């Protein structure tokens, strides 16, 4: 079972019996997976809307912003996974042990659950829009179907274990990649334009706002909570032991692979819009972008885009709901019925869909709501992974902690700017 902080130098983790006798390459492949699941958070419908808007409005201009956000995401997700690997506990579990009062735990849980529910709003709405584009289903019905399917994925996770859940989510991740990258293969970007997009610069105030939206909403709080839990589930309480250094090395590979995939797909979204939607009216919404893609590249690419959006909504809402369950279990040591939890977290999205509010606008608002949870996840993560009392000999080195502090300050500042500009009507 889990080791306390004084045992941080003792090996944790596992592999299967066949994995022990496998080749080094196969053993490494067995260790991959948690980061790929957490990485789905970087390909949710909110990211789709932001990247498509950036490409449609400014062409290649903000490619560098997407890549910069991806670099920061690598560090944050690695620290989250490292915490789960070394301590065999999730971030919420460790925070519960360190809170001095029950009131503090409950207050922290309330904000974390609110973040998880805001996440669900974006994912369910994205799935509903995709089903509308594919099958002309009403948004309310599409949202309900998305919620039911995500509940099925959670049932698989709870009954079949993390390994099967990871395989399904990784499969959806591949569908997302194909759906959003197919158009770029058919209509590739100009090399000169792409190279120009790597140079940091802005065109006007609105391009700054878009950059802030992309960067400020890059790191999702629920991805931090989820990744530490996923790493704990995979490595923390199993019979066969491996050394922590080996697990951390595999984790770095896992996070690197996940961020390469997420970063590449996010850039592909922006390039898809830059090449095909620049200057086209009505592309500020997902429905408008889909219609413009169909006009420019044909129904097959437009359908693949909608399928990618659907896979994005399904995978990310399942991971978000998993994070919400782990937040409650970790902070309060309580679990409620999966059906009850799913109904509670699905309710806000269904209310928004039923009210007739513009889905893309609802996505933007949900991303702003997530911004409020960034400091509560990032600051404890950097602090805990820097403490020898928690991490033992695997505590961050000074430059890792310094980089974590820098990224935290930058992301928190950007999210504050995003909130202020949004409230001012930007």
In short:
The protein is mostly helical and 426 residues long. It contains 20 helices and no strands.
Range of strand content: under 5%
Based on secondary structure, the structural category is mainly alpha
Helix content: over 70%
Task: Report low-confidence residues grouped into runs of 5 or more.
Answer: 1-21
Mean pLDDT across all amino acids:
85
Q: How would you describe this structure to a colleague?
A:
By secondary structure, the protein is an all-alpha fold. It is built from 20 helices and no strands. It has helices spanning 17-20, 24-31, 34-38, 45-58, 63-87, 91-98, 102-135, 139-160, 162-186, 191-196, 205-216, 221-235, 244-276, 286-297, 299-332, 338-355, 359-371, 374-385, 388-391, 398-423. Helix 4 packs across helix 17 and helix 11 packs across helix 20 (398-423). The radius of gyration is 21 Å and the shape is globular. The termini are far apart.
């Amino acid at each position: 079972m889990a080791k306390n902080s004084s045992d941080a130098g003792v090996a944790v983790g596992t592999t299967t019996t066949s994995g022990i006798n496998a080749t080094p390459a196969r053993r490494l492949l067995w260790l991959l997976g948690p980061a790929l699941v957490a990485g789905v958070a970087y390909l949710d419908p909110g990211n789709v809307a932001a990247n498509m808007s950036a490409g449609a409005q400014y062409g290649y201009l903000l490619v560098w912003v997407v890549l910069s956000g991806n670099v920061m995401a690598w560090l944050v997700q690695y620290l989250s996974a490292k915490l789960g690997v070394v301590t065999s506990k999730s971030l919420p579990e460790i925070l519960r042990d360190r809170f001095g009062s029950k009131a503090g735990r409950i207050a922290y849980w309330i904000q974390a659950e609110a973040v998880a529910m805001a996440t669900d709003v974006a994912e369910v709405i994205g799935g509903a829009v995709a089903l509308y584009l594919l099958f002309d289903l009403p948004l309310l019905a599409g949202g309900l179907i998305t919620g039911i399917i995500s509940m099925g994925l959670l049932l698989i996770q709870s009954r079949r274990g993390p390994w099967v859940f990871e395989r399904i989510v990784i499969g959806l991740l591949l569908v997302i990649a194909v759906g959003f990258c197919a158009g770029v293969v058919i209509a590739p970007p100009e090399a000169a334009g792409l190279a120009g997009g790597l140079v940091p610069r802005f065109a006007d105030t609105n391009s700054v706002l878009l950059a802030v939206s992309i960067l400020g909403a890059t790191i999702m709080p629920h991805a931090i909570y989820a990744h530490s839990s996923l790493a704990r589930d995979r490595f923390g309480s199993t019979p066969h032991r491996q050394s922590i250094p080996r697990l951390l090395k595999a984790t770095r590979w896992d996070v690197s692979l996940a961020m390469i995939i997420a970063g590449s797909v996010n850039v592909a979204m922006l390039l898809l819009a830059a090449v095909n939607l620049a200057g086209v009216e009505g592309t500020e919404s997902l429905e408008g972008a889909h219609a413009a893609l169909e006009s420019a590249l044909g129904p097959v690419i437009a359908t693949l885009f909608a399928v990618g959006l659907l896979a994005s909504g399904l995978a990310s809402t399942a991971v978000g709901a998993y994070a919400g369950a782990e937040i409650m279990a970790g902070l309060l040591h309580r679990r409620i019925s999966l059906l009850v939890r799913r109904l509670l977290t699905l309710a806000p999205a269904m209310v928004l869909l039923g009210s007739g509010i513009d889905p893309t606008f609802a996505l933007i608002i949900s991303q702003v709501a997530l911004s409020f949870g960034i400091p509560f996840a990032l600051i404890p993560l950097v602090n805990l992974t820097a403490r020898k009392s928690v991490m033992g000999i695997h505590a961050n080195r000074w430059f890792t902690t310094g980089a974590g502090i820098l990224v935290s300050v930058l992301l928190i500042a950007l999210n504050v700017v995003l909130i202020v500009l949004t409230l001012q009507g930007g």
